[in-house]
Amino acid sequence: MSVTYIPDHVEQALHNRLSQFSQSQNLELLIRLFVEPLQELEDIAFALITERMLSSAQGAQLDQYGAIAGQRRDGLNDETYRRFIGVRLEANRSNGQPDVITNVLATLMSTTSPVQYHPLPPAAFGLSYMLGEYSSDSIRTRVLNLVNAIIPAGVKLEEVVESLPGYWGFEGDDDALPLGTGAFTAEVINA
Question: Does the pLDDT value for residue 175 go beyond 70?
Fold first, then answer.
């Protein structure tokens, strides 16, 4: 939602008066008398709208967004909780599509490379991504719970591989270094 703030109602009103009245001080005072309260209403309304948007909500207002979206705070700070709520809203509208699942992980984990989706027939998949440093167990648990909540019934998340830059791997893994030059830094998270 885009909201445009108008900071100069009085100046606009004075500018829009007819030229033959441009020198009338009585008219200017009358315009100011009527328009200045409108500017105050604009300021208050704009603050009410913008301070309650998800992007700027804090504390109790953010908790209300979480309650509506179905995302518990459980001790998260406002910035992290805001990210979880935004992703939860996206997840609530999804049907478990792979692009939504990878977007959920990329947003919540702040990955340094794209999240890879690996289909595993007949009805499973795996995910892999790279981070600058390993995530905490509590964040992993929250993310996996969110992913498991949006995948379709009958589909299983087999594993999630979290790795750091500079790990060694095999041909076809674009992010991996050749054997002997990188470190074994991939961590498998059982979903």
Answer: no
The pairing of strands 156-163 and 124-130 is: parallel
Q: Which residues contact 107 (CB under 8 A, 6 or more apart)?
A: 83, 86, 87
For residue 167, the 8-state DSSP code is: B
User: Any idea which residue has 């998260």 for tokens?
Assistant: 76
List phi, psi (to 5°) of 176. -85, 155
pLDDT in tens, 24-44: 899 999 999 999 999 999 999
Residue 150 sits at the vertex; the CA angle it makes with 147 and 152, to the nearest 5 degrees, is 120
CATH 3.30.300 corresponds to the domain 94-190: yes
Q: Which amino acid is at 42?
A: E
Which residues, including other chains, have CB under 8 Å from residue 87's CB and lie 6 or more apart? 103, 104, 107, 108, 146
**Could you tell me the CA-to-CA distances from 114 to 49, 85, 102, 173 in Å, in that order?**
34, 21, 8, 13
**pTM for this one?**
0.61
Which of 112, 89, 84 minimizes the C-alpha distance to 175? 112
- C-alpha pair distances (Å), 105 with each of 99, 128, 145, 158: 10, 9, 11, 15
CA–centroid distance for 102 within its chain:
14
